[in-house]
Specification:
Elements lengths: L8 E6 L2 E6 H41 L12 H12 L9 H16 L4 H4 L8 H30 L3 H4 L7 H12 L8 H30 L2 H5 L17 H18 L1 H11 L15 H17 L3 H25 L2
Antiparallel strand pairs: 1-2
């Protein structure tokens, strides 16, 4: 059986029938699915950011307390109370404009890893859990380079410096961007990049690995025995080809994923926050700058493991509802527009 030269397609024979599978159409379908993942992931990320941002502000303020001074906050609740008395509830949302863009980039990039299965494996082959974890980690590594400048400005807005605390109004993002560029140039926007890279690469892999594992567990126990006898393999079935779980199961799987993402690599995020909240005018020359390892060593020597996990409880706690909303919104949008 021969195909005419120049025909963009494959010929598949089923008994006496021949079916032309247009490669161009398949590619267009993959691009459309990737575009949907980006769009739905962006919407889900923005929704999740509104849910979690006050908790993120408390987390950054707890992480960035000076090591050489008595701690200003006794814990998350005390930080909430002091922040609320000083700035009101809206003060906990200070600096949210930049993170909204970052949340859209971060979440859409991580969900885009699902679409990478079309590149790694043929479209009809399932993407195994191990490959999905690798795709999630790769997407997280790429995203980290986009997130670091955004998180730098966010952290500086969440934790005003001593100089800005004497001003009537805390500096906005444009003032901070100008100040960072004037003192450190373009390189200064990627301060703390190694911490972001570790957190996003490992965290994204854990995020999708946890979500897929919990979802597979639900399907294993919830699916009818008849479907199990037909060879329904949950662990090797990609997310995009499965029937949607009930909402409460999606939320629980998303909550576990969010807690895994935040807990496993939390020390890297603490070191990053300390580096990014350092007062701009007091940053040492390049030859004397604090590195990721030197900041981590200083935290360990002064406060031990507890210092590296400062604020972890509230971070893991807020990640549960946030990730639950993110996965539920994403799955709902995909189901609605499929």
């Amino acid at each position: 059986m021969e195909a005419a030269q120049g025909t963009a397609g494959k010929v598949a024979e089923h008994g006496s029938k021949m079916e032309i599978i247009d490669v161009g159409t398949a590619s267009s379908s993959q691009v459309a699915e990737a575009a949907k993942d980006i769009t739905f992931g962006s919407v889900a990320g923005i929704v999740g950011k509104f849910v979690e941002y006050p908790f993120d502000t408390v987390k950054v303020r707890l992480q960035s307390q000076p090591e050489h001074l008595p701690l200003r906050y006794r814990g998350p609740l005390d930080c909430f109370q002091q922040s609320f008395r000083q700035d009101g509830f809206l003060g906990l949302y200070r600096g949210i404009s930049a993170p909204l863009a970052g949340a859209a980039i971060e979440t859409s990039s991580m969900f885009l890893s699902n679409a990478l299965q079309a590149v790694i494996l043929p479209s009809k082959e399932p993407l195994p859990l191990s490959a999905l974890v690798v795709c999630g980690g790769a997407a997280g590594a790429f995203t980290s380079y986009l997130l670091t400048p955004i998180e730098l400005i966010k952290c500086k807005m969440q934790v005003p410096s001593q100089q800005s605390s004497t001003m009537k109004r805390a500096p906005g993002p444009l003032i901070l961007i100008t100040s960072v560029y004037r003192h450190e140039g373009l390189r200064g926007f990627w301060r703390g990049q190694l911490g972001t890279l570790i957190r996003e690469t490992g965290g994204s892999a854990a995020w999708f690995g946890s979500y897929e594992s919990v979802s597979a567990m639900f399907r294993r126990f919830v699916e009818s025995p008849s479907r199990s006898r037909k060879g329904f393999n949950d662990e090797n079935t990609p997310l995009a080809t499965r029937s949607p779980l009930p909402v409460y199961q999606q939320m629980l799987a998303g909550a576990v994923a969010g807690m895994s993402y935040n807990f496993l690599f939390y020390p890297a995020d603490t070191i990053k926050s300390v580096m990014q909240t350092e007062e701009i005018g007091l940053i040492a020359p390049i030859s004397q700058k604090k590195t990721f390892l030197s900041v981590g060593r200083a935290l360990w020597m002064q406060q031990g493991l507890k210092g590296l996990y400062r604020g972890c409880g509230i971070t893991v706690g807020r990640s549960a509802p946030s990730s639950a909303f993110i996965f539920t919104v994403f799955e709902g949008l995909k189901d609605a527009f499929s």
